[in-house]
Amino acid sequence: MIYDIMGYLGALLMGISLGAIGGGGSIFSVPILVYLFGVNPVIATGYSLFVVGTTSLSGSLSHIRNGNINWRAVFFFGIPSITSVFITRTLIVPNIPNPVFAETIFEVAKPRFFLLIFAFFMLAAAFAMTRKKKVKSDSDKGTNFLKLTSAGFFEGALTGLVGAGGGFLIIPILVLLGKVEMKKAIGSSLVIIAVKSLMGFMGDMHNDVRIEWNLLIPFTLVAIVGIIFGSAIANKMPNEKLKPLFGYFIFIMALIILFKELFLKYFIY
Description:
Elements: H1 2-21, H2 25-35, H3 41-65, H4 71-92, H5 110-130, H6 145-162, H7 167-176, H8 182-206, H9 213-236, H10 239-263
Helix pairs in contact: 1-2, 1-9, 2-3, 3-8, 3-9, 4-6, 4-8, 5-10, 6-7, 7-8
């Protein structure tokens, strides 16, 4: 019971994170589903796509109404990313062997392999969020759309592999390559995450993954409540202050996952 309460509090925090900074949904949801609800890590990556996608879709509606979407960036980055994540979830993930790198010194169970990759991406996200960046103007001037499209394909493959919505990678790319101002980068990120995550989840449905709707529905509803609060926070507090705080938090979470997976030998799936 205590784990369920902690899990739903985590879902609330996940929604707040998405609403406040436009990312971090899977960084919360995957560890919560694995460590508090006992979901297999491989299945949890698929579950997180549904939770993050549905929650992001709800949060993006207010940004659309307020005009906080850069639709050119969504198009040039989002379509390649969405295509890549669907291909990854449908064709690549099911064909990764278990254990990974079988009969080699690097042999590791498939669930642990996913979590280790996820933890390293969390470290990279923490570094990106804690760096001080000057907010760029919302303009197409200086934007290299070929680079933005290439980045979309690459980001989609990575986030499809680990079952992440990818906001922690999308926002830095939109700001640095797309020259999108922070508020519009958040709104654009939510649109991309929503479509991409739900399509990735459809790829899992195509692979006949058993879905525990009695867990997913209440978890997602709590996260939607969180994104409403998060959006309110974003309107009152500068994102430049929220980003580094969240970066330090996910840095700690990444270290905890790495410690469990690399040093606690009795921790077996």
